[in-house]
Amino acid sequence: MKNKTIAVWFSCGAASAIAAKQIIDKYSKTNDILIVNNPIKEEHEDNRRFLKDIEEWLQHPIIQAKNKDFPNASIVEVFNKRKYMSGIKGAPCTKLLKKHARYEFEMNNKIDFHVLGFTFEEINRQERFNIFERSNTINILIDNKIIKYDCMQILRKSNIKLPVIYSLGFPNANCIGCVKATSPTYWNLVRKTFPNVFKQRAEQSRIIGARLVRVKGKRIFLDELKSTDRGAKIKSWECGIFCNTN
User: pTM of the full predicted structure?
Assistant: First the structure.
């Protein structure tokens, strides 16, 4: 393959970092590689440190792509403007700050192939992206049968510190207080580790009328959640393509 433009969508997570590395190693000599990140204000601040570390490791710039209508890239601003936080149609933050930002970037950059950090255990997600979004993808992690744990190990062996958010018990490097989450276990972890974020989500969701957490099958407001409420193991929320859980 020669003279193609390949866009790697870097999410500040371990998997997309390894996808970027493998794409550069395999295709950069004869193709133009764009590594693109959709920054989100409410992500953990250490995500920016991780991005800089990956940029240095790859010896390749990472481009920022934002929705021009939301220059601050803030999910709180999206919720206030849309008066909606999360529901059966997903979350507006993903749609506006990730997907629409990607669409705008595509309008200004001719992209031949897209690369996302889907690992081998996420084949279904990759297939959904190909069906509902774009069919022109290079599925480098899946093709090489690389799982998320492998990605973390590769980074550790390269002496790259993983984003702090992983060490706090969260399964991904998404926003703190992800509104796609309904697990009381997750929200109580947010309350314990980031009490100010929990307070902000609780207050905003009460104003908007969004019952974000589910306890024993019933949707309740965050300010009704007891610190003793527990659910199943915290799942991984996908942010950037579809609003769902894995």
Answer: 0.90
